[in-house]
Structure formats: structure tokens, C-alpha cells
Design a protein that fits this description.
glycoprotein, 23% strand, 6% helix, 6 helices, globular, mainly beta, 11-stranded mixed β-sheet, 719 residues, Leucine-rich repeat, LRR (right-handed beta-alpha superhelix), leucine-rich repeat, single chain
């Protein structure tokens, strides 16, 4: 019988039984490189605080690959090298140690969303294998080294810090794809030499720095560029031609510079544009009629320029548009776009231009539109009846036009179930009245403004049904009657302006019980339409605009310039959330009560009334009070000192012959002891008379003199 070869026997034998290796056993062959461990230890020593849980003592110290945020090379069999360090959003505080330069195999370094500060060591910019560097959202500062060696880098993000000097161009980084230096303090010109480093750059973000000089040529060399952000800088000049060769560009943001010239028709070459924003510049001339070539465009914003001419008809061909924002230009003509072809339009902002004619009746065909601003134009006519079907509309401002028939407008708009903000200021000025009945809708309206319309009538009772109302402004009209009690029962109301009317009677106690001004609630939070412009006029001459956005409205009760009587209600003291109380130019009498509990009060105007007595010393405890006016009343005694009172001016107290002290003439140091004297002698000696009885002439005899003693113990009367 043939003998079996030994080698074959060995191959046929079953393998020997070997006990399985435990987890700790396997890790003993996968320990960290000692130099990496030292680099990590140096990094932690540079931190003021961290909760990483890394341990550099004991047997576990060699297993750094298992630590939070660390990834190692999977190809190594024994000693592992650290190739990734992701410590984003780990509440790190302190500085970035140069020891990280010892991680010479590192491919990804992410320290974003922490509280790191100080300069970044030069060693970081010489890591030979680094592909991703993300230092964004920290407090890092200083210069970025002009010389770097990051040839493999693909993502470079140092945004939201305080770096200064010139921005890095990362020469030799041929793989660079994303470059973000936004929200720093870089200055000087923008260097388009970065486009010579890589032909694969897709994202360039230079937003919110201090760049200056003319808009540079050279971005055309970034042939793969899809996103270019240069907003919020100080760039000047015109746009170079090579910018319009970037056929892959989807997002272009140049807003907030000082760029000028016309908008080139070559912008139509950027056929992949989705978002373009050239707002807040000095562009002039007509908007090019090339939108039929931009069939992917969703947002076109060019507000706050000096553009002229009409709306380009090709805008109607851009069916993908969701936002058209052209506010504050000099555009004119009728609004004659075909809104039936713009079904996705969400925001149309044409405010502050020179548009004329009626409101287009086909606007409700934009079934996704939520915001419509046509304020401050020369539009005429009535609100189209088709607006009854504008069910998507949430924010509507028609301020400063020449619309008529308020009653019809309200009857139409009350049908809009989602209408949240309605501003009709400076319209209906042909002697119309505020409708008192026939209005039942506006159930979801939070901001209701019909100011400066010269409306007659009274405060309409149907407002009581606006249970979600937060802001009510019907000022600068000719409304009469009393302030209704129910006005103070609107739980969400935090801004009430019924000033500059002819309202009479006393202030209802309910205004001192307004829940949102006592407890505070969601009324004070920003709404979804926080940037919606309101353009509320603060005076009949139209000089200046205030409260341009709903988020700007301070919690206020403004009742000035009416014919109100009675006293200042002590209950105002409970309105701890109130910022502004204006009762000026009325016929209010009595004394000033203790209002020191109004801890949020910033402005208190009680001027031009008939108030008597002294200014309460307790008002000095109002730490946020920046405006205070009691001029032209009958107040007496010494003006309180301390708190904010030293910051007020003489004009805030004038017209009160009995006041003395700070901002006015000094109060006498000692009580006047006299039996009989003449007013002429008193005027010559003290320069004023605190209080006199009856009528007097310069030579009459004074029998009573009131003096508020400097120690504030009380009013001393001498006969």
C-alpha cells in the first residue's frame, strides 16, 4: 500500500484547539502610537475644562482608539495611528495646543462648536495628511500663517471666529472643495488666487468680514464653483465679466457691500442659479430681462439699491421662484406680472418703490404666498375682491398708498384664515370712518395696524374678538369716545398705541391688569415673520420711521395726545413687563403714584398734563429707565437724585415752576423764615418762587411759601 506523504497528513489533521482571545487581548495588539498619545495629552493640558473622559494613566491609556472623538487607522495590525479627531460640540474651553501637530497621520480635525480661544498654532497648518479642518464656531483669533502645507485638504472651515489679517489662500491645496472663512475679521482685498490652487473648489464663503477694495476678477478660474458668498463686507466697484462664466453656480450672495454699476445681462448665463442676493448695494439701472434663462431660480433679492425701470416680464417665466424681494428701489410702472405662472411664489416684497395702478387681482393664484408687501408705493383703488380666496396669506402690508374703502377692505380680508399681520397705515384718507360693525373675522390676527388714516368714529367693538392680538396701533386718527374696558382683557396684547386721537374719559382699570404685561408670555417672542416690514409712522409729518419689524415692538401702552382725564392709576405699578408708558399731552391730574415696581420700564412720559405734588423718590429704583419726561405740569419740590435721574435733561422737567434741584436751579439750603416780603425780593434773592397763593403781581405781598426741604422730610409751609 502506498504511503501517504507527511505533508498531506499534516494538512488533513484538524487544527489545534486554541482558546479564543478576549477583547483585552486583541486590544493589546492594537495600542495607540506613543507619539499620538503624547500629542493628545498635550492637547488636553491646554484645555481649561473638558468632559472628554480621556485617561492617560493605567493600562487603558494605550487604547486611545476607543476614546470619545478619536478614530484610528484600520489597516494597522498592531500599533494604531490616530487619523481622526472629532470633538465638535464638546464644551471645550481653553486654547489649541501646538502638540496636535504631532498627530502626523491625522486626516480629519473637527473642533467646531466649542469655546476655544486664542491663536491657532502654525503646526496645525502643516499636518501633511489633513483632509478636513473645521475650527468653526469658537472664539479663536490672531493671524493665519501665510505659509501652509495642507496639500490634501478638501474642507477648510474656520468660520465664526475672530481671525484677522489677510485670508489664507492655501497654495498647493489641489483637492480643496469647501473653503469657509465667513464671520471673522479678515481685511484687505479678497484674493482670488485661491482659485489657482484647486480646480475642484465648489464652495467659497467670505461672508461678514472686513474685506475692502474693488470686487476682484479671477473667480472665473473656479470653474466648478457652485456657491460664492461675499455678503456683508466693504467691496466696491462693478462685477467683472468672468463672474458670469461660472455655469455651475447655484448660489450667489453679494448683499451688504458698496457695489455699483448695472446688473449685467450676462447673469442670464448662470443657468443653474437657485439663489441670488445683491441687496444693500448701489446697483442702478434696469433689472435685466433674462429670467426666462434662469429656469432653476428660486430666490431673487435686490432690495435697497437704486434700480429703476419696471418689473422685467420674464420674471413670469420663472415658475420655480419662491421669493421676489425688490423693496426700497426706484422701480415704477404697474405690477403686471402673470402671477398665474408663479405658483410657488411665497414672498413678494415690492415695498418702497414708485409702482402705480391697482393691486393685481390674480395675486391669489399664488397659492403658497404667505408674505405680500406693497407698502409705500403709489397704488390706488380698492382691495380686490379676489383676495377673499387668498387663504395662504399670513403677512400683508399696504402702508402708504392711496387705497380707498376701508370697510370693503376689512370685509374682504376678514376671510383670510391665516392672516397674522395686517398693516394698512396711511391709506383711506378721504374722510372715511372706522367701521363699527359688520366685521367678524381676523380670528388669527396678531398684529393689526390702521394708523395715520384720519379715520373718524370710535374704537371698534369687533376688536374684542381678536383674541390672539399682540400689537394694536390705531394712532393718528380722529377717533372719539372712551377707551373700552375690554381692551385690557385681550390676554396676548402687549403693544397698544391709540395716541393722537380725541379720546376722552378716564383710563380704564383694565389696562393695569393686562396679563402679557404682568406675567409675560409668548406675545413677547419673535414670530415666524419677524423680519416683516411694518413702516409705522410716528408723527403726522412723516419724518422718520420706527418699529420696522415686529420683533422691534417694545411692550408699550401709548395713550398720548388725547383728551383723557382722571389720575394715573396706581395699578400700573404691577406691569412688570412694560417697557414704554406714554400718557403725555392729556388732561390727567392728581399725583404721580409709586411706579417703582415697573422693573422693565425704559420710557415714562407724563409731560403736558396737570399733575401736582412731588416726583416720587422711588422712581430712582427704575434701573432701565432711559427716558423720563414730566415737563409742563404743576409739580413741586426737589427732583430726586440717584439712579437714572442724572442722565435726564433740563427739558424733561421744565414748565414746573415749583421744581428745583438737579437739572434746574438749586433748592434753598435752609427753610425761608420770613413774615412778609415782596415777590420782587424773592425773585432777586432766589430766582424763583416755589408756590404762591392766588394771583400776584411783581409787587404783591406773599403770605404763603412752600418749600420742599433738602432732607426730604416733608413740605414746609411758612406764613
Amino acid at each position: 500500500m502506498q504511503q501517504t506523504p507527511l505533508l498531506l497528513l499534516l494538512l488533513l489533521l484538524p487544527p489545534p484547539l486554541v482558546p479564543p482571545c478576549s477583547h483585552s487581548c486583541s486590544q493589546s495588539h492594537q495600542s495607540c502610537d506613543l507619539s499620538d498619545l503624547n500629542a493628545l495629552h498635550g492637547f488636553v493640558e491646554g484645555l481649561e475644562s473638558s468632559a472628554l473622559g480621556w485617561s492617560f494613566n493605567g493600562s487603558s491609556s494605550s487604547n486611545c482608539c476607543n476614546w470619545v472623538g478619536i478614530s484610528c487607522d484600520a489597516d494597522s495590525v498592531s500599533v494604531k495611528r490616530v487619523i481622526g479627531l472629532d470633538l465638535s460640540n464638546k464644551s471645550l474651553k481653553g486654547s489649541v495646543s501646538s502638540s496636535l501637530g504631532g498627530l502626523d497621520q491625522l486626516k480629519q480635525l473637527n473642533l467646531s462648536y466649542n469655546s476655544l480661544r486664542g491663536p491657532v498654532p502654525a503646526e496645525i497648518f502643516h499636518l501633511p495628511h489633513l483632509e478636513l479642518l473645521d475650527l468653526s464656531m469658537n472664539m479663536l483669533s490672531g493671524l493665519i500663517p501665510t505659509e501652509s502645507n495642507l496639500s490634501p485638504i478638501q474642507v477648510f472651515n474656520i468660520s465664526f471666529n475672530s481671525f484677522n489679517g489677510t485670508h489664507p489662500i492655501l497654495a498647493g491645496s489641489s483637492n480643496l472643495s469647501v473653503y469657509d472663512v465667513s464671520l471673522n475679521s479678515f481685511s484687505g482685498p479678497v484674493d482670488t488666487g485661491i482659485c489657482n490652487s484647486s480646480d475642484s473648489i465648489k464652495v467659497l464663503r467670505f461672508s461678514a468680514n472686513m474685506f475692502s477694495g474693488e470686487f476682484p476678477a479671477g473667480f472665473g478660474n473656479c470653474s466648478s464653483l457652485s456657491e460664492l458668498l461675499l455678503d456683508a463686507n466693504g467691496l466696491t466697484g462693478t462685477l467683472p465679466d468672468d463672474l458670469f462664466t461660472l455655469s455651475s453656480l447655484t448660489k450667489l450672495n453679494l448683499q451688504g457691500n458698496s457695489l455699483s454699476g448695472t446688473v449685467s445681462t450676462n447673469i442670464g448665463n448662470l443657468s443653474n442659479l437657485v439663489h441670488v442676493d445683491i441687496s444693500f448695494n448701489n446697483f442702478s439701472g434696469a433689472i435685466p430681462d433674462v429670467f426666462d434663462r434662469l429656469n432653476k431660480l428660486e430666490c431673487f433679492s435686490a432690495l435697497c439699491n437704486i434700480l429703476t425701470g419696471g418689473l422685467p416680464p420674464s420674471l413670469s417665466s420663472c415658475s420655480t421662484l419662491t421669493t421676489i424681494s425688490l423693496r426700497n428701489n426706484s422701480l415704477r410702472g404697474t405690477i403686471d406680472l402673470n402671477f398665474t405662472t408663479l405658483p410657488r411664489l411665497n414672498i413678494l416684497d415690492l415695498g418702497s418703490n414708485l409702482f402705480s395702478g391697482p393691486i393685481p387681482p390674480d395675486l391669489p393664484n399664488c397659492t403658497h404666498m404667505t408674505t405680500l408687501n406693497l407698502a409705500r408705493n403709489n397704488l390706488v383703488g380698492e382691495i380686490p375682491s379676489s383676495f377673499k380666496n387668498f387663504t395662504s396669506l399670513s403677512d400683508l402690508s399696504l402702508t402708504g398708498n392711496n387705497f380707498v374703502n376701508l370697510f370693503s377692505a376689512l370685509q374682504i380680508l376678514q376671510n383670510l384664515p391665516n392672516l397674522t399681520n395686517l398693516v394698512l397705515t396711511k391709506n383711506f384718507r378721504g374722510g372715511e370712518s372706522m367701521p363699527s360693525e359688520g366685521i367678524q373675522g381676523f380670528a388669527n390676527t396678531e398684529v393689526f395696524v390702521i394708523a395715520n388714516c384720519a379715520l373718524s368714529g370710535s374704537i371698534p367693538p369687533w376688536l374684542v374678538n381678536l383674541s390672539k392680538l399682540k400689537v394694536l396701533d390705531i394712532s393718528w386718527n380722529h377717533l372719539t369716545g372712551t377707551i373700552p374696558v375690554w381692551l385690557g382683557n385681550l390676554d396676548n396684547l402687549f403693544y397698544l398705541d391709540i395716541s393722537n386721537n380725541s379720546l376722552t374719559g378716564e383710563i380704564p382699570t383694565s389696562l393695569t391688569l393686562m396679563k402679557s404685561l404682568i406675567y409675560g408670555n409668548s406675545s413677547l417672542e419673535r414670530t415666524a415673520s419677524q423680519d416683516f416690514p411694518f413702516f409705522i409712522k410716528r408723527n403726522s409729518s412723516g419724518k422718520g420711521l420706527q418699529y420696522n419689524q415686529v420683533s422691534s415692538f417694545p411692550p408699550s401702552i401709548i395713550l398720548s395726545n388725547n383728551k383723557l382725564v382722571g389720575s394715573i392709576l396706581p395699578g400700573f405699578n404691577d406691569l412688570v413687563k412694560l417697557h414704554v408708558l406714554d400718557l403725555s399731552w392729556n388732561n390727567i391730574s392728581g399725583t404721580i403714584p409709586d411706579l417703582s415696581g415697573m422693573s422693565s420700564l425704559e420710557s415714562l412720559d407724563l409731560s403736558h398734563n396737570h399733575l401736582a405734588g412731588t416726583i416720587p423718590l422711588s422712581l430712582t429704583r427704575l434701573n432701565f429707565l432711559s427716558y423720563f419726561n414730566v415737563a409742563y405740569n404743576n409739580l413741586v419740590g426737589e427732583i430726586p437724585t440717584g439712579g437714572q435721574f442724572s442722565t435726564f435733561s433740563k427739558e424733561d422737567f421744565q414748565g414746573n415752576p415749583g421744581l428745583c434741584g438737579i437739572h434746574l436751579i438749586p433748592c434753598p439750603k435752609t427753610p425761608l423764615r420770613l413774615k412778609e416780603t415782596t415777590t420782587t425780593e424773592l425773585m432777586r434773592q432766589y430766582g424763583y418762587i416755589l408756590e404762591w397763593d392766588q394771583d400776584f403781581s411783581p409787587d404783591s405781598r406773599v403770605s404763603t411759601l412752600c418749600y420742599y426741604s433738602e432732607d426730604r422730610e416733608g413740605l414746609l409751609i411758612f406764613k
